[in-house]
Amino acid sequence: MTKIAVIGGGQIGEALTGGLIASGFDGQDIVVTNRRAERREEFEETYKVKTTDNNQEAVKGADVVFVCVKPYAIVDMFAEINDSLAKNAVVVSMAAAITLDKLEGAVGPQVSVVRSMPNTPMLVRNGMNIVVPGKNVTSEQLDTVKELLSTVGKVLEVTEDKMDVAAALAGSGPAYYFLVTEALIDAGVNLGLTREQASELANSTAAGAGQLLVESEQNASSLRYGVSSPGGTTVAALRELEESGIRGAFYRAIDKCVERTRSMN
Ligand SMILES: NC(=O)c1ccc[n+]([C@@H]2O[C@H](COP(=O)([O-])OP(=O)(O)OC[C@H]3O[C@@H](n4cnc5c(N)ncnc54)[C@H](OP(=O)(O)O)[C@@H]3O)[C@@H](O)[C@H]2O)c1
């Protein structure tokens, strides 16, 4: 059985641990680290995994090490665990913005590193994980990492030159959909719906539209055409959105997101 270490038991570390356990992984094959003792107890009770506050101990014997600490701490964490890694271990960074070059520079020249970018729907096992394999990663290691990440959603491999843009779409993407949903709720309340009614309508519509996008064989444009009767109500609303510059706003938003990511490197 694959031995797994999860370094940093925060939101992302917990989502991953929960997904692995729900997919049938044995908690005794997973070690989670965290500095706060009460957090470690929560993991032990909820997921029946092993825990420790010693990152070096945790990675000893692990085949795959997921590092789920904040971006500012990730390079130091790679350096901290480097000497304790098993010979064929693969280390996966879940941190936004930090390049493979920096991650690989923090560990030995032979160490296999994967850069990954999750998103928060991973918390409900419906995430989108982007992965970029480093130079030492074997196809077998990459398959293992993809298989483990697929317990919490979909996995897309890209080359690193595409990572920042992919992350701007999927990593930050849930926030855009949440903002659109909030705006719809406020618009409904403005016209007399209760906030509860408007929330149920907007939230369920977001979930249903998302599922349709993924499951239907049609693309987003043709699904939109399907609800846009000539001269009808939906096209009247869409025209207002287009005239308000929604499409341009998304182009500019993604530009800004990528620009900000690159300024962090
Ligand atoms: N949340 C998102 O939407 C999202 C999306 C994409 C990517 N990510 C990436 O995922 C990573 C984790 O994010 P998150 O939201 O899960 O952060 P988080 O909730 O703050 O989790 C980080 C965890 O690491 C623990 N930690 C910090 N230093 C540690 C150390 N030296 N040893 C052991 N544990 C340590 C922290 O707890 P203690 O301080 O108690 O140890 C905390 O539980 C980040 O790099 C972020 O860029 C997050």
From TrEMBL:
Transmembrane spans: none
Source domain of life: Bacteria
Annotated localization: Cytoplasm
Example GO BP: L-proline biosynthetic process
Pfam families: F420_oxidored (PF03807), P5CR_dimer (PF14748)
Entry EC number(s): 1.5.1.2
InterPro entries: 6-PGluconate_DH-like_C_sf (IPR008927), NAD(P)-bd_dom_sf (IPR036291), P5C_Rdtase_cat_N (IPR028939), P5CR-like_CS (IPR053790), P5CR_dimer (IPR029036), Pyrroline-COOH_reductase (IPR000304)
Family to which this protein belongs: Belongs to the pyrroline-5-carboxylate reductase family.
Keywords (A to Z) from UniProt: Amino-acid biosynthesis, Cytoplasm, NADP, Oxidoreductase, Proline biosynthesis
Protein name according to UniProt: Pyrroline-5-carboxylate reductase
Organism: Corynebacterium stationis
Enzyme class name: oxidoreductase
Primary role: Catalyzes the reduction of 1-pyrroline-5-carboxylate (PCA) to L-proline.
Domain Pyrroline-5-carboxylate reductase dimerisation: 160-264
A GO MF label: pyrroline-5-carboxylate reductase activity
Binding site for NADPH: 55
Reaction catalysis annotation: L-proline + NAD(+) = (S)-1-pyrroline-5-carboxylate + NADH + 2 H(+); L-proline + NADP(+) = (S)-1-pyrroline-5-carboxylate + NADPH + 2 H(+)
Domain Pyrroline-5-carboxylate reductase catalytic N-terminal residue range list: 3-96
Metabolic or biological pathway, per its Swiss-Prot or TrEMBL entry: Amino-acid biosynthesis; L-proline biosynthesis; L-proline from L-glutamate 5-semialdehyde: step 1/1
GO CC terms: cytoplasm
NCBIfam families recorded: proC (TIGR00112)
Gene expressing this chain: proC
